[in-house]
Inverse folding.
């Protein structure tokens, strides 16, 4: 009779699934199957479901981890800013970090994001959005701002602009990002 996994093994295997899936998705795209990932780490495909309810949940977990890493970097950098120009520069730095991350860049394709958002449980997506808003409020100097929820949503929308480069126009895209970054920075510092 096969023995079950210990708690330590469960944590290690879960992390191996995340790491292997991230690597395979970056190399081969999201056509990579669960069996490809489980075979690579040496567990049975059925064991995958001890860790994730679906491939989409695994992908979303990777996306959340990548976002958390970028947010941690930005949080450290935001502690030293005071001017609108510095805030705008760091917002643009966030776009740069996301664009330099192959997994997030892959996820920011409108097709991939749309497919993923349709397949993950609504409660998981809602939890992510609440956590996302909270982390934006923590990173930026907006905890006591009267419009903090609106600013938080506007910053999320700012990052989603990267999904619409073609619709915005490639020639205008960078100027548009800079315009929005400056506008957001001024709104963040506005007192009323």
């Amino acid at each position: 009779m096969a023995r079950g996994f210990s708690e330590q093994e469960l944590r290690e295997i879960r992390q191996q699934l995340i790491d292997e899936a991230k690597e395979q998705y970056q190399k081969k795209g999201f056509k990579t199957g669960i069996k490809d990932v489980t075979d690579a780490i040496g567990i049975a495909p059925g064991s995958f479901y001890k860790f994730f309810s679906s491939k989409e949940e695994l992908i979303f977990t990777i996306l959340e981890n990548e976002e958390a890493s970028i947010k941690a970097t930005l949080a450290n950098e935001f502690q030293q800013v005071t001017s609108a120009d510095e805030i705008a520069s760091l917002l643009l730095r966030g776009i740069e970090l996301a664009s330099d991350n192959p997994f997030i860049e892959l996820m920011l394709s409108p097709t991939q994001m749309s497919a993923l958002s349709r397949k993950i449980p609504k409660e998981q997506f809602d939890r992510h959005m609440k956590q996302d808003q909270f982390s934006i409020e923590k990173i930026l100097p907006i905890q006591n701002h009267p419009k903090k929820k609106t600013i938080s949503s506007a910053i999320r929308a700012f990052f989603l602009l990267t999904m619409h480069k073609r619709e915005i126009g490639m020639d205008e895209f960078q100027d548009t990002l800079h315009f929005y970054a400056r506008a957001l920075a001024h709104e963040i510092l506005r007192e009323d």
